[in-house]
């Protein structure tokens, strides 16, 4: 069995990387940081924001509420306050399902390549 290198897993992401993940401007991420108390990225000595995967999951949930479901910022804040315990479980579950889907698609692609 050939040796397979493990992927390096990042712990911190810049605001530009996070903005690219969601296809939004970095200024929107900064704005949401001011509007939503749940977004608290660490800042380095220069003041650059460093987002963890947990921060990204919180942003993903806000993105779903505001951009996908069409909530106002105030409406999204109310939903988050009401469902704070369950909110991030749902976001984590959705993210895990996306990862599983991607993995299965890779398997399907490998099967098609090998059968040809």
Automatic annotation (TrEMBL):
InterPro entries assigned to the protein according to its UniProt record, in alphabetical order: DNA-bd_dom_put_sf, MerR-type_HTH_dom, MerR_fam
Keyword terms of this UniProt record: DNA-binding
Superkingdom of origin organism: Bacteria
Pfam family name, one: MerR_1
Protein name: Transcriptional regulator
CDD domains linked: HTH_MlrA-like_sg2
Segments forming domain HTH merR-type: 12-82
Listed Gene3D superfamilies: 1.10.1660.10
Transmembrane segments: none
């Amino acid at each position: 069995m050939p040796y397979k290198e493990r992927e390096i897993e990042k712990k911190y992401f810049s605001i530009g990387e996070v903005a690219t993940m969601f296809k939004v401007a970095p200024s929107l991420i900064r704005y949401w940081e001011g509007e939503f108390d749940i977004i608290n990225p660490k800042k380095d000595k220069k003041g650059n924001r460093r987002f963890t995967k947990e921060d990204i999951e919180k942003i993903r949930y806000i993105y779903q509420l505001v951009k996908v479901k069409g909530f106002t910022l105030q409406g999204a804040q109310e939903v988050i306050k009401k469902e704070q315990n369950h909110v991030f479980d749902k976001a984590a579950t959705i993210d895990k399902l996306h990862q599983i889907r991607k993995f299965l698609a890779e398997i399907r692609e490998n099967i098609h390549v090998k059968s040809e």
